Amino acid sequence: MFNRPFWAQSPLEASRRTQYAGSWYEGNGEKLKLQLKDYLENAHSIPDKSSCARLHSQNKDFTQPILAIISPHAGYMYSGQTAAFAYKAASKQNNIKRVFLLGPSHHIAVKGAALPQNNSFATPLGDIELDTDTLEELKSYPMFSVHNNVHQIEHSLELQLPFIKYCFPNAKLIPIVIGHLDDDSEVRLIGEILKGFVGKDDLVVVSSDFTHYGPRYSYTPFPSYSSEKIAGLDGEAFQHLSKLDLDGFIEFLHRTNDTICGMYPCQVLMSMLPHDSHGTAVQYANSQDIAKDDSENSVSYIGMVFSGAQWPAEPGRVRPTKDIVKLSASERQALLNLARKTIEVFVREHRTATPAELGVTITPAMKTCFGVFVTLTIKPPGKEHDHDHDGLRGCIGSIYPVKPLWKAVQDNAIGACSRDHRFEPVREFELSQLTLDINVLTPPRRVASYNDIVIGRDGVILTKNKHQAVFLPQVAVEWKWDLNQLLTQLAQKAGLHRDDWREGCKFDIFQSEEIR
After folding, report:
1. H-type helices in 300-442, by residue range?
2. pTM of the prediction?
3. CA distances (Å), 501 to each of 47, 264, 459, 472, 486, in order?
C-alpha cells in the first residue's frame, strides 16, 4: 500500500500522526514504556546537584506544586534522561488535567502562536486528546492563528508527547507552536492571553534545547569547543529564566546571539508565570556527554521546573469590572507629566527619556500592568475646552495589560506622536498646542452577546475572522451613538460590512479610567 510522506498529511485528519517515532525515540509502544520507565527511575536525585553545578549558577530548591517545566527535545538517546528529571518532579501531582505545550518552529517560518486543527495527537502509547474548546477560543485572540502544516512536521512538540502521555495519561493537551515575535510587547500579549486560561489543575510544558555550539549551527562565540564556556552561557540564560527576568533574558540574547531554539516559548512562559514563582534546574547535560566523537559541535539540555506559587483556582480570563487602577490625584498628574515630557524629549531629541530624567517618581501603583491608550488632540483657537470638537492628532494604545502602567504610558505616548499612520509625526511647534488624554483600561473580558454591552460604561473589542477593532468607552458617548450605531461603526472600522456584527462576532468589553 502506498504511504504518503508525512508532509502530505491532510489537515482534515482528526489525529496528528507521529513523524519521529522509530527514529528520534522508540516507536514500539511496549518498548517505549520501558524506556520511559527507566529514564524516570534513573531520575533519582532531584535536582541532580552535580550536573546542575556545571551551570555556575545559584539554584533554589523547588516545592510542590510544579506550575511549569522546561524540557529538551533532542533524540531521546541525547536528552531523554534530562527530560525525565523535569517530568518526574511534575508527575508527583496526580491532579493534572490539562497540559499547555509550547515549542518553537524549526521547519516553517511562522509569526505569533500557531494552533493545530486536529482533535488529538498520536503517540505509540495512545492518542492524547486535545482541548478543542480552548483551542477554538484561542483562535479569536490576536497573535493566535491556525497553521496545521507547522504542527504536522514539528518535532519540538512531538518529543514531549510520550512523556506527557506516560506521566499524565488522562490529561488533555493544548499544543501551541510559538513562532517569531517582534518584541517584548508581543511576548507579553501572548503570555497575558494564555495566563487567562491556566488554572490549578494545569501544567505548562515548554520544549527547548539550549546553546547549539559549533560550525553545524553557525555559532562559534569562542574559537574552540569549551564545555566550561558553554556552561557559562547556559548558566546566564538559566539565571534570567529562574528569576523570570524577561528583560534580562532578551538583553542576554541580543548581546550573545545565543542559539536557544525555544527562546520565544521561554519568553512567553516568563510572562505567564506568577511573579512570586521561580525556576529550579533539576538536570543539565550536553550532547558531548553522550556522543564524544564530535569534538566541534554540541547542544545543551536543561531540565527546569517552576514552583513557589500556584496557578489560580479557576482560569482568570473573565475578570470582574472592579479591576480598575486606583490612582491618587498626584499619581494621575505624574502620568500626565510623564506622557507630555516624554513626547517633548522624543520630538526634539528623537530618544526616550527615563522617568528619573523627567523628574517623575514611579509609585507601586504605576508599576502594575494595565492596558493604556494615549490620545493627542489639537483644538482650534476658542475650541480648547470643547470635548465635542474633533481635533485628533494621534491615538495609540495597548488593549491588554502587558506592560507596567508607567512604561505603557511612555511607549504609547511616543506611538501617538510618531506612529499613528493616519497622521504625520508631531512637529516641535505643535508641542505647546497638544492636549493629552490617558485612558487606563481594565483587563478585557469576553461577553456572551453584544446585548451585554453598556453604552458609556464599556469599551468594546469586536473580533471576527481575524478582523478586529476597538472603541474606548467615551467614543459612543461623544458621538451620541446607540448600541446599533456603535457596533456598525466598529464593524466598519474592522474592515467588515456594516451589519457583520450581527452574526459570528466575538465581543470583549473593558472599562476605562480617563486622565485628562
Report:
1. 329-349, 405-418
2. 0.73
3. 54, 34, 15, 17, 10
Phi, psi of 137 (to 5 degrees): -70, -35
Edge-to-edge strand ranges of the sheet holding 128-129 = 15-16, 120-121, 128-129
What beta strand segments (E) does 212-331 contain?
212-213, 278-286, 298-307
301, 222 Cβ separation under 8 angstroms:
no
> What angle do helix axes 246-256 and 263-272 make, rounded to 10 degrees?
160
Between CA 72 and CA 298 the distance in angstroms is 14
Contact 38, 81 (CB under 8 A): no
Question: Which of these, 250, 249, 253, lies nearest to 240 by C-alpha position?
Answer: 249
Question: What gap in Å lies between CA 87 and CA 40, rounded to an integer?
Answer: 8
DSSP class of 58? -
**How far is residue 300's CA from residue 339's CA, in Å, rounded to a whole number?**
44
Q: Domains in the chain, start-ordered, CATH in brackets?
A: 27-56+66-307 (3.40.830.10), 319-379+390-440 (3.30.700.20), 444-516 (3.30.1490.150)
Q: Which residues contact 159 (CB under 8 A, 6 or more apart)?
A: 20, 24, 25, 72, 73, 74, 75, 76, 79, 83, 207
Q: Is the pLDDT of residue 180 over 80?
A: yes
Per-residue cell: 312:
489560580
- Enumerate residues 6+ apart whose C-beta is below 8 A from 454: none
Find out whether the peptide bond into 320 is cis, omega within 30 degrees of 0: no
State the Cα–Cα distance between residues 359 and 111, nearest whole angstrom.
Answer: 39
Quickly tell me which residue has 564530535 as its cell: 294
Residues 317, 443: Cα–Cα separation, whole Å: 8
Print burial letters for 474-492: b (CB count within 10 Å at least 16), e (below 16): bbbeeeebeeeebbbbbbe
The pLDDT of residue 322: 45
Which stretch of DSSP H or E encloses residue 396? strand 392-398
| CB atoms inside a 10 Å sphere around CB 435 | 16
The DSSP-derived string for 458-469 is -EEEEEETTEEE
Q: What is the pLDDT of residues 463-506, one digit of tens each?
A: 887 688 999 999 999 999 999 999 999 999 999 999 999 999 98
> Residue 126 and residue 135: Cα distance in Å, rounded?
21
pLDDT of 319 reads: 39
- Tell me the three cell numbers of residue 452: 451585554
Map grid coordinates 550536553 to a residue.
286
Supply 182's cell numbers.
517582534
List CB contacts of 61: < 8 A, sequence separation 6 or more.
Answer: 280
> Cα separation of 296 and 289, whole Å?
13
Cis peptide before 47 (omega within 30 of 0): yes
